[in-house]
TrEMBL record:
Transmembrane segments: none annotated. GO terms for molecular function: GTPase activator activity; myosin II binding; syntaxin binding. The keyword Phosphoprotein applies. This is Syntaxin-binding protein 5-like. Keywords: Cell membrane, Coiled coil, Cytoplasm, Exocytosis, Membrane, Phosphoprotein, Protein transport, Repeat, Transport, WD repeat. It comes from Esox lucius (Northern pike). GO terms for cellular component: plasma membrane; SNARE complex. Residues 1052-1112 form the V-SNARE coiled-coil homology domain.
Amino acid sequence: MKKFNIRKVLDGLKEQASSSASSVQSGAPENNLMQETLQSENFQLCKTVRHGFPYQPSAMAHDPVQKILAIGTQSGALRLFGRPGVECYCQHESGAAVISLQFLINEGALVSALADDSVHLWNLRQKRPAILHSLKFNRERITFVHLPFQSKWLYIGTEKGNIHIVNVESFTLSGYVIMWNKAIELSSKAHPGPVVHISDNPMDEGKLIIGYESGIVVLWDLKSKKADSRYTYDEAIHSVAWHHEGKQFICSHSDGTLTIWNIKGQGKPFQTITPHGKQPKDGKKPEPCKPILKVEYKTTRLGDPFMILSGGLSYDTVGRRPCLTVMHGKSTAVLEMDYPIVDFLTLCETPYPNDFQEPYAVVVLLEKDLVVIDLAQNGYPIFENPYPLTIHESPVTCCEYIADCPVDLIPALYSVGSRQKRQGYSKREWPISGGNWGLGTQSYPEIIITGHADGTVKFWDASAIMLQVLYKLKTAKVFEKSRNNKEDKQNTEIVDEDPFAIQIMAWCPESRILCLAGVSANVIIYRFSKQDITTEVVQLLEVRLQYEVNDVESPLDGGGGDRDPPTPGAASPSPQTAGPPTHPSTSSNSSDGVRDNVPCLKVRSTPLKQSPGYQVELVVQLVWVSGEPPQQITSLALNSAYGLIVFGNSNGLAVVDYLQKTVLLNLGTVELYGSNDPYQRQPRSPRKTRQPSGGNGRFGVCVISVCTGALPFFAISSTVLLSVCPPRGANPLDHRDNSFSRSRSSSVTSIDKEVREAITSFHFCETFARKGDSAVAPCLFVGTSLGTVLAVALNLPPAGEQRLLQPVIVLPSGTVARLKGSILRMSFLDNTGTFLPPSFEPWYEPNATGADGEERDKARKRRPVSVSPSTSQELQESQYAVVVSEKQAKVIALPSQNCIFKHSITETSFVLRADVVQMNIGNCVACFCANGHIMALSLPGLRPLLDVNYLPLTDMRIARTFCFTNLGQAMYLTSPTEIQRITYSQETCENLQEMLGELFTPVETPEAPNRGFFKGLFGGGATSLDREELFGETQAGKASRGLAQHIPGPQGLEGMKGAASGVVADLARARIALDERGQKLGELDERTAAMLASADSFGKHAHDMMLKCKDKKWYQF
């Protein structure tokens, strides 16, 4: 029978009563002094921009006049790219894959065809493109779409082999239909298959070429509504391309061949080429190759034509990477790609298909990259890609976002990052150069940091809603390359793959100190330097962190009497620091072969050359303990003013002095409570003997003499890892739910012996460590997975040389508060409610010599910058600690430790990420919950200011990468390759329209190619077609009613914003109509001029004949 615990009930009632009473009594006078400036009107949630490579691309199009590129994806997304910094993201509501894209060239419009057999018209003449019209086919599947240049009639090929024609202005179907059976007639007994190609003859708009999958090509006469010619080949067709003169076309086939056909030559192809096939000597057909998926045929005025194709490699090239082949004259260049080719487009000087094309570049869309090849330079170099498309170069494992950082930081990172750029790129300018930048009013610098699976860390300039890579750091260089030694792997590695993956990042922008926790239970501290150095020996500390609860040590069975903290100064050094701070030879095997004191990764023993940028200062590694691997690090923080880092896991925490290269504190979580542990912990094992741990005995006050170092300073934010990072292979959400179900209130409870109280959050600050303290002092606040907040007092020596010579004293000071759920974030406010950032040390050049070295020493002797209250502060001038857990937020008055405000954030879900952020006119708590809600709470009153159901948690990527930052900005990884930035600030939402770039800019369409006198006189050159008359309702009739359904664009508020109340749509249609009319008038003018020239010529010839025959008699003729 379960024992009834009356104490638990009484504790719960007591806490409720005290918290409600305190919020009324102590909260009332204090709240009068703290006017909350933020109101709900200051908040609005909206997406701003999306950066990165389009995830799972499926289609591509290019506007040669506007010079913009469109990419569609398998999830229905649409990404548009102009000049560097001009990007746009749109989404089809259905989420169906984009199978084809067609620009209305120089019209500011785009047609998209989706896998759900819908066709959409996008208006690009606004900063946020919107759909003007949609057409949903009901009976047939769309396979190919073609829109001729300067035409409003869209050809749509289907799986049944039919071709339908759509008026782009009204998005209605024409009654003109090309049926497959009429197109092939008796040329084939079987169905020809889906339509794989449609295009009109460059010189004759009335002739349409139709490619069927089975190998049949039909030249269709639109006026006479019958086939002029049919061309049959016994291999399936993948693509067709015209020669610009309209007398030849080329087909690519499934056996790796190219066939060139004359339009007047029936039966056999004019030429058959197998670009990668071995030619047998006996004249037989070459060996079949892989299919040529696409071919393009582009001509030049002064040289040989270009034939560009993807695929077609020989089957014996097993393991060869995907290739793009460029055939120019007698030369053939095979360009290997890193990923499979999705599509490619050749960029040409002219948009007119009946002129010499003059190709200058090829855009190649790969599964995970976008490559642009320069055809104008020898060797076909690629252009340096200016878009931020390399976010996914290695999978992103964690992110941090810092807004309003120091102004000199981005130039400093750029200066060292510019030296890392590769060489050998094309010297010409990036060819996709359309659009205009927005007129952004945001002037503050922003930085995004991404940690990756291969151990790299990338710094990105995210200012003014753009993204540009600044600097890349490779942490794997610190470690030895792993050998394929099975025994070593079994004994030391705790992850199967990506042993260098970055798990948590802590960064101090002011001091530029960077601290990284890896998945292999290691922490690396980096300093920023503008000079290169060679580090002979990488400094290393090894730490044993173990969790052990024994009957003897339980405070609940009378064993806590000897656990009072010793007096400062009486502690002995920890075992780790007994030797010099180089590579300790602590690795050992016990007699039974159990691994002990062995780190997961081996730090390199050879000298390390370090380029300007981030240079390793110290490596801290957790080691195996009695055959058990170290637990992964769950929380990390640094403070540059104190010269300390702290990290924790499910076993406990360790505080490291990186100036003196020593471990100050190494405690199990249980030991932080001392004799006041509220939990009845069961013994973990019957083993009584403990392995030696860092710190002084059990309690861990540790005094260390210092070796080397630098002046104190402080971290801008103590970065907290979400407690949703389970070991690989576990189900993350299940793990999180299970861990949350064990969360307790502040009443006395019993803990299962399997449950470990993990360290989930840290915060360095100058505050009151104990209840009733009269002055603030440096402290470390610690949050655990059971909702407890504990204080650790820090006794630091004076700044300067004394900091490097005198001991640092660390003393746990007891529990401050308890909340429901894991502690996620802690922060501090002063007695007026103003945010108190931690103190910090300004950056100095660590490798300076001579005069610079003297300046560095002066900087190190200065006091760190601190905005905390002075130590002479009176008791009534209190501070407020803001603590956020998975379930609650509390504001606690210090030093009284009374809870003055409390808010239950969620009952049915849990908070994934919480940050205390500074807005323009105040501070707030921003939270992201697993149920997709984004919330903002006022400070210090914790009033709800924003609650939007934004994004249901669909995968762990979002939980792992979501982060808020100051001034209403936030971001997360929306796909493995893309960062989505959002804002929750009303001011930013209002200014967003101005900040966004413009895709469409008014540009004159180039003049049509000159037809010449003789072509005009004798009827040569391109012939036009009155499509309006041919496809209009008068002549073609109405389309079948059930074939497709017309869907107008959105009509609601979003539609008004997106489509500009339909006015832009009407203007676009009117302009298209005017341009079409102008085109016809221009053609009429040309015809009139040709007729006048012909009439003048005839009159001249007639006059000459009259003069010649004037005096002749009739019988003389």
